[in-house]
Each structure stands twice: as C-alpha cells, then as structure tokens.
Design brief:
single chain; 289 residues; alpha/beta; six-stranded mixed sheet; 10 helices; 45% helix; elongated
Length: 289
C-alpha cells in the first residue's frame, strides 16, 4: 500500500445540547498532502476516542505513525494521550481556529459550505498544518500521563500490526474475493471478518430458499457468538450479496472451484488401467547352481 502523508485537525464538537464533562466529543478532520478533505468524524474525548482516532490515522496514512495533529486546546483527554504517545502536535486558540476555518475553507465544496462551525474549524486546522502555517512538534506530556507511555507504545504497535494485516487481507481479497471489498470498506473489522470466515467463497451464497436458509443459519450462529445483533448481520450479508451481483466475474469464472481437467480421449481410467507387472528377470542375471 502506498504511503500517504495526511494532516489531522481536532476541534470541540458543536453539539446542540450542552455537554457534560463525561460526554465531550471532538470533531476530527483529515486532509491529504494536497489539502483535500478525506475524512471527517466525531470521537469521544476519552480513551475510546483516542483508540478510534489512532486507528483512523493509521488507516488514512498507510500505517505511518508520524501524523501531524493540530488542536484548538490542550485540555482534552485525547490531546493529552496523543502528547504522551509521542505524537507531533500544534496547539492554537479559539480565535486562530476560527481564522483558519475562514482562510482555508473550500467555497466550491457543497459539503463544506453546509458543515457546522466545529467541522470548519477542524478542517481549517488540518489545512493550516498542510500549508505550513502551523508546525507540529513534540510536546511535553502531563506528569499524570507519564505512566501510560508503555501502554500507549504497546497500543501503537497493535494498531500498526492491525493495519499491516488489513492491507494484506485487502490484497488477498482483491485477487480472490473482490466483491468483499465492494461490500466492506474495512474488511478487517469484526463483522466483515466473521461473515467472510463463515462465507469464504461467493459461490456459497446461493439463491433461492437454500441461500436464504444459509444466510439465516450464519446470522443465528454469529449472533449467538456475540458478534453483533441479527439485524446488523443480516444487513451486512445483504450488502455482500449486492456486491457479488454487481461485481463482474472474471473470464471463465463461476464463483466455484474449477472443475477437474478431463482426461485425453482413449486414456484408461484409474480403475480400468492394467496393473503394471515387473519386467522378467534375465536368465543371464540368474545365478548358476
């Protein structure tokens, strides 16, 4: 997978209702080296949000760990964890974040025109990094975060390993099961992995009553194992069916194992082939009495 340089902006989510200290959300924007917006989402300001952000940056950067991050405040739990993990960060204030939101806004993008204030600030911060207006450097972590450095280093190794495994899985599916990539943007997630393990070949998803019974059986087994609820699993299998129907088959491919090549005409079958007898011993090799 080609490495892509990306930049990340973090801003406080602009939710309609006031947030309590335990329900703070952050808006995340990721842009590429040309300033194009490639992802925007919200994460919770806690350890779970940090894990989601780390996975997102690893996915968008092709596994690179040195992704620059700009934030409007260093008071958030996520930014403190990023600092303790050794990420390069740039901090600014609210007025500067609003200025970057206006300066680096894309007025030709309908999505950005309709975005809220927090999304515009996050995009502006990311593009300020990309343009060189902000410079991300290593920050001193808070003293209470220092004991977490070994845990964060181990988590970074797990995220990197997961990203490498996901890239390998994508290459395998691209060759053998391209419909899975159409159905699941990230086939390494829990639900796609479980479904692909239960339905490893497109030909298994047959049509008619037999196919529906097979789907119901897979949904029941996976739901019983706690993978997800039956509705979510059913929708995921339906997405895979749609992707199989929309994916053109390779020339000569039927979605099933290839048949055995026929024997040339006139060649005996294994059962009818005569047994091979050992050659008679020559009389010259027989010892004389």
């Amino acid at each position: 997978m080609a490495l892509v340089r990306v930049y990340c902006g973090l801003a406080s989510a602009d939710l309609a209702e006031p947030q309590s200290s335990s329900e703070i959300w952050l808006t995340v924007a990721v842009v590429d080296d040309a300033g194009r917006l490639i992802d925007i989402c919200e994460v919770s300001d806690d350890a779970g949000g940090y894990a989601e952000l780390s996975a997102l940056l690893a996915q968008r950067s092709g596994g690179q760990s040195a992704v620059a991050v700009a934030a409007e405040s260093d008071d958030h739990v996520v930014t403190q964890l990023l600092t303790a993990a050794g990420r390069n960060l740039a901090f600014t204030d609210d007025d500067s974040a609003d200025d970057y939101a206006e300066r680096f806004a894309d007025d030709e993008s309908p999505e950005e025109i309709q975005s809220n204030a927090a999304e515009r600030r996050a995009v502006g911060l990311a593009r300020a990094l990309q343009a060189g207006v902000l410079s991300a450097v290593g920050q001193s972590p808070p003293r209470d975060m220092l004991p977490l450095k070994p845990v964060l280093a181990a988590h970074a190794a797990v995220v990197s390993g997961r990203q490498s495994a996901a890239a390998t899985l994508r290459e395998v599916l691209r060759e053998l099961y391209p419909a899975a990539l159409r159905a699941y943007p990230d086939p390494a997630e829990t639900i796609p992995l479980a479904i692909l393990d239960a339905l490893p070949e497109p030909g298994i998803l047959g049509g008619g009553a037999a196919g529906r019974n097979r789907d119901a059986q897979v949904v029941t087994e996976l739901a019983a194992n706690g993978v997800a609820d039956a509705t979510t699993l059913g929708e995921a299998i339906t997405a895979l069916r749609v992707a199989i129907a929309e994916t053109p088959a390779a020339p000569g491919s039927t979605g099933r194992s290839p048949p055995r090549s026929p024997r040339p005409s006139g060649s005996p079958s294994p059962r009818s082939a005569p047994a091979t007898r050992p050659p008679p011993r020559s009389s010259a090799s027989s010892p004389r009495r």
